[in-house]
Amino acid sequence: MQPFPGPPRGSRSGIPSTPPSDPLPVVCALIERDGRVLVARRPPGDHHLADLWEFPGGKIDAGEMPAAALLREIREELGVTLTDLRALPVHTHAYPTVRIALHPFRARLAMPTTEPRALEHAALQWVAPAALRDVALAAADIPIVETYLAALAGD
């Protein structure tokens, strides 16, 4: 049984277009609890990221700071609040229809006993850091894994 079903990693199933030159700023959270990290599976559908796993987050609104955007997005997507935010390096990725500047953060649940809820995702899963390489992640999240693992090694 495959623990993380989904299309091939970084699948770009025939979406023709060129991404714009200015990247769209987005945030994501690597939420840590009990030696594991939370990943969320995108809902099924006909867009190029359907059924792929990702680190939860979303778009940064105009005038919004990345950390504030992350807190807002996580409340909306998971119904929880975060604490202990630690920024990781920003990564830029070009999807067929959009180029993003992904601002990743390590974080913890403000209330560790509160369970995140999949309010906008198909599923949630806690994963050991070393197993993140085996998850069918959205292409933009793949380089975040290596950055995160390097940060863990430096802790």
Keywords:
8-stranded mixed beta sheet; 17% helix; disordered N terminus; 155 residues; Nucleoside Triphosphate Pyrophosphohydrolase; 30% strand
Describe the structure.
Strand 1 (24-33) and strand 2 (36-41) form a beta hairpin. The chain has a single domain, classed as Nucleoside Triphosphate Pyrophosphohydrolase. 30% of the residues are buried. Strands 1, 2, 3, 4, 5, 6, 7 and 8 form an eight-stranded mixed β-sheet that branches. 17% of the residues lie in helices and 30% in strands. It has two helices and eight strands, in the order ββββαββββα. The chain has helices spanning 66-78, 142-154, and strands at 24-33, 36-41, 53-54, 57-59, 82-87, 91-94, 99-109, 123-127. The chain is an alpha+beta fold and 155 residues long. The longest helix is centred in the middle third of the chain and has 13 residues, at 66-78.
Averaging pLDDT over every residue, what do you get? 88
β content, as a range? 25-35%
Shape: globular
CATH superfamily: Nucleoside Triphosphate Pyrophosphohydrolase
Number of domains: 1
Would you give the CATH topology? Nucleoside Triphosphate Pyrophosphohydrolase
Order of helices and strands: EEEEHEEEEH
Query: Based on the structure given, which CATH architecture is correct?
Result: Alpha-Beta Complex
Number of helical elements: 2
Question: Radius of gyration from the CA trace?
Answer: 15 Å
- What is the SS-derived class? alpha+beta
**Can you count the beta strands?**
8
CATH class: Alpha Beta
Report low-confidence residues grouped into runs of 5 or more: 1-18
Helical fraction equals 10-25%
How is the biggest beta sheet arranged? Answer: 8 strands, mixed
